[in-house]
Amino acid sequence: MEILANFQHNPERAARAIKSVEEMVDYFHAAIARLRIHPHEGLVHSLMTAEIEGDRFTDDEVVANSIIVMVGGQETTTTLIGNGLLTLLRNPSQLQQLKSDPALMPSAVEELLRYESPVQQTARLAPHDLEFGGKRIRKRQAVVAVLAAANRDPEVFTDPDRLDLGRQDNRHVAFGWAAHFCLGAALARVEAQIAFEMLLRRFPDMKLDSTPPKWRCNLDLRGLESLQVAFGQKAKTSVPCAEGESR
């Protein structure tokens, strides 16, 4: 997924990335063709049959939305769990508080989303001329919204650089906002709560190993490539942080 949501210039990866995107497009076009002959319920079929006042998606729009949902459902939730685990292990007092009070888990997930946002930034084209923050933005100019910075805004969050699993009124924008709010937010929250509850229950003595965590090279999706952790005094393992990434 390195080409998706990545503003970095990596010419050596371009051919492989373009080939991957082309294969994904071909895969979903083939799925559409199969569903026209043998329809059955599912995401692609729902996109194919969705209609509002007679307006329906083209095949290319079905493919584009299928890819976005696939990436959003895989990359961001995986990153949330990996980043969140590292954050908890780096803050043992907060981790102990969560272990002592499992009812804190929903607000803990919200704070982990705010504190170490899986999606760091997103880009939009201005729909019309406007002035924002004292800056003049012209119609169709690209604007990069840095969600991670907004989630550390001292005008919104008290002591924003401090992890507080019980933080109240946590109006973070890790899932976007308004019309651009993540459609999978509810599912991601549930998945993260289940994952952290399971990890804390099964591995109560998990600690960070001395090996520094390795971050992926992606400006938009901030996530780990590997995270070395220890169980007890001797055992050590590498927690997989993204499917297909190095262990």
Please give a structural write-up.
The protein is of the alpha+beta class. The protein has one domain (11-240): Cytochrome p450, CATH 1.10.630.10. It contains seven helices and ten strands. The protein has helices at residues 11-37, 43-49, 59-90, 92-100, 105-115, 147-150, 185-202; strands at residues 51-52, 55-56, 121-125, 130-132, 135-137, 142-146, 206-208, 214-215, 224-231, 235-240. Strands 7, 8, 9 and 10 form a four-stranded antiparallel beta sheet that branches. A hairpin with a 2-residue loop joins strand 1 and strand 2 (55-56). The radius of gyration is 20 Å and the shape is globular. Mean pLDDT is 88; it is low at 243-247.
Write the layout of secondary structure elements.
Elements: H1 11-37, H2 43-49, E1 51-52, E2 55-56, H3 59-90, H4 92-100, H5 105-115, E3 121-125, E4 130-132, E5 135-137, E6 142-146, H6 147-150, H7 185-202, E7 206-208, E8 214-215, E9 224-231, E10 235-240
Antiparallel strand pairs: 1-2, 3-6, 4-5, 7-9, 8-9, 9-10
Percent of sequence in beta strands: 15-25%
Backbone shape: globular
Please give the oligomerization state of what you see: single chain
Helical amount: 40-55%
Number of extended strands? 10
Q: What do we call the CATH topology?
A: Cytochrome p450
